[in-house]
Design brief:
Structural class: alpha+beta
CATH topology of the largest domain: Immunoglobulin-like
Radius of gyration: 23 Å
CATH architecture of the largest domain: Sandwich
Number of helices: 5
CATH superfamily of the largest domain: SOR catalytic domain
Distance between the termini: 50 Å
Length: about 190
């Protein structure tokens, strides 16, 4: 740990929040001398204080410990670059249109890599007027089911969350060409072209 870098980061983040050393210290129930010591690089926060400091300053603990914040390049909001993250513990679904550090249940998640659908995971797509009727014969049991389906075009995404023992059928408003992504709880992320 580089106390100088950590101190400079804490100083900059505190200033961004328009807080004094005393205000930050009061929120953490410590002395403002401790904050001053950190910011001058004469020491680092105790490990037990990092979660609270992280929450107050609005950054991850990892960023505090590294002494720097990595900013993503601005890539715009093109939904075709959408990344999906699914927590293996709680099945929480998260998305990002660019690089992101995402964690859930205490573990960092990697974005899922979509495979082109195969005959075991093919969704039925039927145009009905201005909608797409989506259905599947995929089993929908607690141990093996499709957890979500997402219809992605260049500027929009529609997500339908699915649960075990539901019938796998619903409708999306037809938006033109795009991809239909879906996640099988046992086999991962798949896509079909629309």
């Amino acid at each position: 740990m580089n106390c100088d870098k950590i101190g400079k980061l804490i100083y900059n983040l505190r200033k961004e929040k328009d807080m004094t050393q005393k205000q930050l210290a009061d929120l953490m129930n410590i002395s403002d001398k401790a904050i001053s010591k950190w910011e001058r690089g004469l020491g680092c926060p105790d490990v037990s204080l990092l979660p609270e400091l992280s929450q107050i300053l609005g950054v991850n603990i990892e960023e505090i410990l590294s002494g720097k914040i990595e900013l993503n390049d601005a890539i715009g909001g093109n939904m075709k670059k959408l990344k999906f993250y699914v927590c293996p513990q709680c099945n929480n679904l998260m998305t990002a249109t660019g690089d992101a550090n995402i964690s859930c249940c205490g573990k960092r998640l990697e974005s899922l890599v979509a495979e082109k659908t195969n005959e075991n995971h093919l969704l039925n797509i039927e145009p009905v007027e201005d909608e797409l009727y989506i259905s599947s014969s995929h089993q929908m049991e607690k141990e093996h089911y499709i957890s979500f389906v997402a219809y992605v075009t260049g500027d929009r995404v529609y997500i339908a969350k699915q649960y075990p023992e539901w019938n796998m059928q619903f409708r999306f408003h037809k938006l033109g060409h795009g991809k239909l992504y879906f996640h099988c709880s046992n086999h991962g992320l798949f896509y079909q072209l629309i």
